[in-house]
């Protein structure tokens, strides 16, 4: 087994801190690459939490919680006027 | 307060990008496609629901009308899931926008009408005059029936928009009232809170009922014209 694995094939957890910028720059940022990243992420989540023999409500409720968080961030600008303050 | 009430109905843009497209496409993630004979629990529950609904809804149609099954089932799934997702806090409901509901109602209604005129022209024209009307009322009634035909898509769209928008608005108002009353008189705030809980239960029901009604009416128009 080679003692030095090429940078491109290492997973994120195995990349040393000094190599991090060059590792990030080496990732595939074409539209196809980005689509592939979304697809990999989707199937990772799906196969871990939903596509199991005894899936539970936690699988979808995590997705819904992330959706609520996303919408909160999206409307923070209007919501921050509704904080409880003495002087707005 | 006034501006805040209606700000949640504005089309969502993030840094100028229309992410409303993303929000409309979001419910599709929650319906994975079945691959196997025996699927995981999520897909099995959805399959069971879709079979239950499709059998109940398409039973009244003949074989020509049953070609619309896919369209009507995806319609009811879309409207139902979009309405239910809109009940989550801070979320945007696309069905509150009249533009989208008109875009759903007009093509579907027009499809049923044109299908009726193409395949059963005489019967479709005969719909304009109910049986057994006195002769001197005929011109009047034809005009009225024409108007009622053309009002069908508008009614479909406006019904859905108004129901969902009114429900969301009521929840905002009563929630705000509960908060404001808490410092003045906690018992009144408790009553208002109970009203809010009842309203939320109603909204869950309305979300699903509106989807059902929309689809049912389209299927009724289809039944008339097949």
From TrEMBL, chain A:
Highest taxon in the source lineage: Eukaryota
Compartment annotation: Mitochondrion inner membrane
This protein's record includes keyword Phosphoprotein: yes
Pfam families assigned: WRW
Keywords: Acetylation, ATP synthesis, CF(0), Hydrogen ion transport, Ion transport, Membrane, Mitochondrion, Mitochondrion inner membrane, Phosphoprotein, Transmembrane, Transmembrane helix, Transport
Cleavable signal peptide: none
Claim: Transmembrane is one of the keywords in the record: yes
Membrane topology: Single-pass membrane protein
Bilayer-crossing regions: 55-73
Main function: Subunit f, of the mitochondrial membrane ATP synthase complex (F(1)F(0) ATP synthase or Complex V) that produces ATP from ADP in the presence of a proton gradient across the membrane which is generated by electron transport complexes of the respiratory chain. ATP synthase complex consist of a soluble F(1) head domain - the catalytic core - and a membrane F(1) domain - the membrane proton channel. These two domains are linked by a central stalk rotating inside the F(1) region and a stationary peripheral stalk.
Assembly notes: Component of the ATP synthase complex composed at least of ATP5F1A/subunit alpha, ATP5F1B/subunit beta, ATP5MC1/subunit c (homooctomer), MT-ATP6/subunit a, MT-ATP8/subunit 8, ATP5ME/subunit e, ATP5MF/subunit f, ATP5MG/subunit g, ATP5MK/subunit k, ATP5MJ/subunit j, ATP5F1C/subunit gamma, ATP5F1D/subunit delta, ATP5F1E/subunit epsilon, ATP5PF/subunit F6, ATP5PB/subunit b, ATP5PD/subunit d, ATP5PO/subunit OSCP.
Family: Belongs to the ATPase F chain family.
Protein name: ATP synthase F(0) complex subunit f, mitochondrial
Species of origin: Equus przewalskii (Przewalski's horse)
Automatic annotation (TrEMBL), chain B:
Organism for this UniProt entry: Equus caballus
Keyword Transmembrane: yes
Membrane topology summary: Multi-pass membrane protein
Name assigned to this protein: ATP synthase subunit a
GO biological process: proton motive force-driven ATP synthesis
Xref: CDD domains: ATP-synt_Fo_a_6
Gene3D superfamilies named in the record: ATP synthase, F0 complex, subunit A
Self-association state and partner proteins as the record states: Component of the ATP synthase complex composed at least of ATP5F1A/subunit alpha, ATP5F1B/subunit beta, ATP5MC1/subunit c (homooctomer), MT-ATP6/subunit a, MT-ATP8/subunit 8, ATP5ME/subunit e, ATP5MF/subunit f, ATP5MG/subunit g, ATP5MK/subunit k, ATP5MJ/subunit j, ATP5F1C/subunit gamma, ATP5F1D/subunit delta, ATP5F1E/subunit epsilon, ATP5PF/subunit F6, ATP5PB/subunit b, ATP5PD/subunit d, ATP5PO/subunit OSCP.
Catalysed reactions listed for this entry: H(+)(in) = H(+)(out)
GO molecular function: proton transmembrane transporter activity
InterPro entries: ATP_synth_F0_asu, ATP_synth_F0_asu_AS, ATP_synth_F0_asu_bact/mt, F0_ATP_A_sf
Assigned protein family: Belongs to the ATPase A chain family.
A Pfam family of this chain: ATP-synt_A
Entry GO CC: mitochondrial inner membrane; proton-transporting ATP synthase complex
Superkingdom of the organism of origin: Eukaryota
Listed transmembrane segments: 6-31, 67-86, 98-117, 137-158, 164-182, 189-222
Cellular compartments annotated: Mitochondrion inner membrane
Predominant cellular place of this UniProt entry's protein: mitochondrion
UniProt KW keywords: ATP synthesis, CF(0), Hydrogen ion transport, Ion transport, Membrane, Mitochondrion, Mitochondrion inner membrane, Transmembrane, Transmembrane helix, Transport
């Amino acid at each position: 087994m080679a003692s030095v694995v090429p940078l491109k094939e290492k997973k994120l957890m195995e990349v040393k801190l000094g190599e991090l910028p060059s590792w990030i720059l080496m990732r595939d940022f074409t539209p196809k690459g980005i689509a592939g990243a979304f697809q990999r992420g989707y199937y990772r989540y799906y196969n871990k939490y939903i596509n199991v023999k005894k899936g539970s409500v936690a699988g979808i409720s995590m997705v819904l919680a992330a959706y609520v968080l996303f919408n909160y961030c999206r409307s923070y600008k209007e919501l921050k006027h509704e904080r409880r303050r003495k002087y707005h | 307060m006034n501006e805040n009430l209606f700000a949640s109905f504005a089309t969502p843009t993030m840094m100028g990008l229309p992410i409303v497209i993303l929000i409309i496409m979001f419910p599709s993630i929650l319906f994975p496609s079945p691959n196997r004979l025996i699927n995981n629990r999520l897909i099995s529950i959805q399959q069971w629901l879709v079979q239950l609904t499709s059998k109940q809804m398409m039973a009244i149609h003949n074989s020509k009308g049953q070609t619309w099954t896919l369209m009507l089932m995806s319609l009811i799934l879309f409207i139902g899931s979009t309405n239910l997702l809109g009940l989550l806090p801070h979320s945007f409901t696309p069905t509150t926008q009249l533009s989208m509901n008109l875009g759903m109602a007009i093509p579907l209604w027009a499809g049923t009408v044109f299908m009726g005129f193409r395949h059963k022209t005489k019967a479709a024209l005969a719909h304009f005059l109910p049986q057994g009307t006195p002769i001197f009322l005929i011109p009047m009634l034809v005009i009225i029936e024409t108007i009622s035909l053309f009002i069908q898509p508008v009614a479909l769209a406006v019904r859905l928009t108004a129901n969902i928008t009114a429900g969301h608005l009521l929840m905002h108002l009563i929630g705000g009232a509960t908060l404001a009353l808490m410092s003045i008189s906690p018992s009144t705030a408790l009553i208002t809170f109970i009203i809010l809980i009842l309203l939320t239960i109603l909204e869950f029901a309305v979300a699903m009922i509106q989807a059902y009604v929309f689809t049912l009416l389209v299927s009724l128009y289809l039944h008339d014209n097949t």
